[in-house]
Write a structure and sequence with these properties.
A: alpha/beta, four-stranded antiparallel sheet, 13 helices, B: 341 residues, alpha/beta, 12 strands, 33% helix, globular
Chain lengths: 331, 341
């Protein structure tokens, strides 16, 4: 059984002008020890998926349907009091900006000790000893001397290392990392990714890695889910999704990333922009921008269908349906 | 006045030993009480480059390397504290004093949300440089020109009636480009023009900028932290580290045969689509503070090739031949031939 099962998760925001559906029947699993990458452009719903799983949706956002199961137990309908011990102990979180995650008024050691003691039965002394070990493990030089330093005394990269220690110190089974390297410079970014990869592997932690950077995903994830307008449009092993993308959106997305390896005359571009939540078209959400659109795309929403190694929400891969557009393109 | 329109390849912008320092001292009273001296930060340290007409020079580097300061100096928003910048052979300050010359340079900023006035209609934003320089006078002429500019950047003429908030990030950046083009400039400074945009939109804007360069013969100074974007855009490339250009040469030469250890580190550190399933050995260390840079070569604390000379002596630029042309590398190891290349 998968560690985390997300089943038709739907998140809605009631507004004065009607209900906006920000996540629309999103389903995926994360196995024990697996790294699932979640990519998409701003507003695709990737961070929201993470927030919904750990029960940190900002009101008025609410889970309007579907289930989230951790080890087979539903966690989407728990009360705040019953969710609190799960957050941190079972599911850790790493956010983009280390400065907002760390409390500026407490020394980093204190914050680690507090987190561990909230979830694990540890004496003050043991907890402090463990805090030093964690700081060493995430690569803070002279950890024993720096344990009583405050967040502002660390550089950006070092702060993000502390945040990683904080997320992992209660030994959660799943870590949700939301853009963990976006605020960092490239040379630091590589250090943090390597660290995150090593630690989660050593501790057998599963990771849901949310980012807009395909390069980070390509390097870190085992599987990847591509999101568009609050839906998953393609999910599968990272190699297949990056090298042989099946969904027209994924194909366009991969083509539009400038490559370091070679210079091309023109980047592939997807014209238009992602629809706003109040104007998601009928049928497939990508149909107004899709080069391979046909009749059925505009009326019926595609389910995730098997296409080679990946699963794709695109009618082109429906073995039983007719594909008039394909015939038209071939002609 | 020089008319350089015909001689393609003549320098459009030239920087000769340019430096810029900022005063980052604490307030006077605090300095007196703690008996501290003044503190200055050398953001740009003795850099030189030439941008030939019709080409793109990119400057790339991590935050705090001084690339945006160079961008601002190139259009005269900051004055250099040392050295000289020449625009079409004239000192930049003299060129900026003449409206005829000033309208020939313009800038595109990073954040399309902060660089457009939210109270103005798009047509007024785009028309402002036209009015400021008095390029056209009649209302109808200006309206026609604005419509043509909006069409040129892929928007509809009717979009001129709207306000900036009605547009997405990518469309706003198109408006910024239309505004930058409205004074009919020949030289554009682009400071991270796509950093705030999503990748699919970034591709649209980069393609548009390349098309406009070909069609209008523009010269770009392109600033970015994203090496892949820079590879796509540049003819020549300068890699900056702590205020200095450590490697400068034809873009393809720098990407294919990087010589400076920092350039190599950068190229290796970037997560790329081709990295599926591969693991890497990351380079340790972080960028030191520019207030208190290391002596000698500023990269030496992180450099695998550093020796005693690197710790003591600032490296000059060594010319290195590459298939695509000459590359200047500021590295003792390269000069002494102990970089193994």
């Amino acid at each position: 059984m998968a560690l985390l099962e997300v089943d038709r998760l739907t998140v809605e925001f009631p507004t004065r002008r009607g209900v906006l559906r920000a996540l629309d029947e999103v389903s995926f699993d994360i196995e024990v020890g697996e790294v699932l990458g979640v990519v998409g452009e701003s507003g695709a719903g990737k961070s929201l998926t993470g927030a919904a799983i750990i029960g940190l949706l900002e009101p008025p956002g609410r889970v309007a349907g579907g289930q989230v199961r951790l080890d087979g137990m539903r966690i989407d309908n728990l009360s705040r009091d019953r969710m609190r011990p799960i957050r941190g102990r079972q599911i850790g979180a790493i956010f983009q900006d280390p400065l907002t995650t760390l409390n500026p008024l407490y020394a980093v050691g204190h914050q680690l000790v507090e987190t561990m003691q909230a979830h694990l039965k540890l004496s003050d002394r043991d907890a402090r000893e463990r805090a030093v070990r964690w700081l060493e493990e995430v690569g803070i030089p002279a950890a024993r001397q720096r344990i009583d330093a405050y967040p502002h005394e660390f550089s950006g990269g070092m702060r993000q290392r502390v945040v990683i220690a904080l997320a992992l110190c209660a030994e959660p089974r799943l870590v949700i990392a939301d853009e963990p390297t976006t605020a960092l410079d490239v040379s630091i970014q590589a250090q943090i990714i390597t660290l995150l990869k090593r630690l989660t592997k050593d501790h057998g932690t599963s990771v849901m890695l949310v980012t807009h950077d395909m390069g980070v995903i390509a390097e870190t994830a085992d599987r990847v889910a591509v999101m568009y307008a609050g839906r998953i449009c393609e999910i599968g092993p990272v190699r297949a999704v990056v090298k042989q993308p099946a969904h027209p959106y994924t194909e366009g997305l991969m083509g539009s990333i400038p490559s370091l390896a070679q210079r091309v005359e023109r980047l592939r571009q997807i014209d238009g922009a992602m629809p706003r939540l109040n104007a998601i078209p009928l049928g497939c959400a990508f149909n107004p921008r899709c080069p391979k659109v046909f009749q059925r795309c505009c009326t019926e929403r595609p389910e995730l269908l098997a296409a080679g190694d990946t699963r794709v929400a695109c009618w082109l891969y429906d073995a039983y349906g007719d594909k008039p557009a394909l015939a038209a393109t071939d002609a | 006045m020089r008319d350089g329109a015909e001689d393609f390849g003549a320098p459009m912008l030239e920087a000769i030993g340019v430096s810029r320092s900022f005063d980052v001292s604490k307030p006077w009273l605090q300095r007196m009480l703690t008996r501290e001296g003044r503190l200055s930060l050398l953001a740009v340290d003795d850099i030189s480059f030439v941008i030939p007409r019709g080409t793109t020079l990119s400057l790339v580097g991590e935050s705090g390397c001084g690339k945006s300061t160079v961008a601002r100096m190139a259009v005269g928003l900051y004055a250099p504290s040392g050295g000289q910048i020449k625009f079409e052979g004239q000192p930049l300050s003299a060129a900026r004093a003449q409206p005829v010359m000033r309208r020939r340079m313009n800038m595109i900023f990073q954040d399309p949300y902060a660089s457009l006035n939210p109270h103005w209609r798009v047509r007024d934003i785009v028309a402002e440089p036209i009015r400021a320089f008095g390029l056209l006078s009649s209302y109808a002429d200006i309206a026609g020109r604005v419509a043509a500019l909006l069409t040129q950047v892929g928007l509809a003429p009717a979009d001129g009636e709207k306000f900036p908030h009605e547009f997405s990030g990518g469309q706003r950046q198109r408006i910024s480009i239309a505004r930058a083009l409205s004074s009919e400039p020949e030289f554009l400074v682009c400071d991270e023009p796509t950093s705030a945009l999503d990748v699919s939109v970034q591709a649209q804007i980069l393609n548009l900028m390349r098309d406009l360069q070909v069609r209008l013969g523009l010269t770009y100074l392109f600033i970015s932290h994203n090496l892949a974007v820079v590879r796509h855009m540049s003819d020549r490339l300068g890699v900056m580290y702590l205020g200095r250009i450590v490697e400068l040469g034809p873009g393809e030469a720098v990407f294919r045969t990087p010589r400076h250890p920092y350039t190599r580190l950068l190229l290796e550190a970037i997560p790329d689509l081709d990295m599926v399933g591969k693991s890497r050995t990351p380079v340790g260390g972080e960028v030191p503070s520019p207030i208190d840079p290391p002596p000698g070569c500023t990269f030496h604390p992180r450099c695998p090739l550093a020796d005693a000379r690197c710790r003591a002596e600032k490296p000059g630029h060594t010319p290195v031949a590459a298939a695509q042309g000459e590359v200047l590398v500021a590295c003792h190891a390269v000069e002494e031939g102990r970089d193994g290349a």
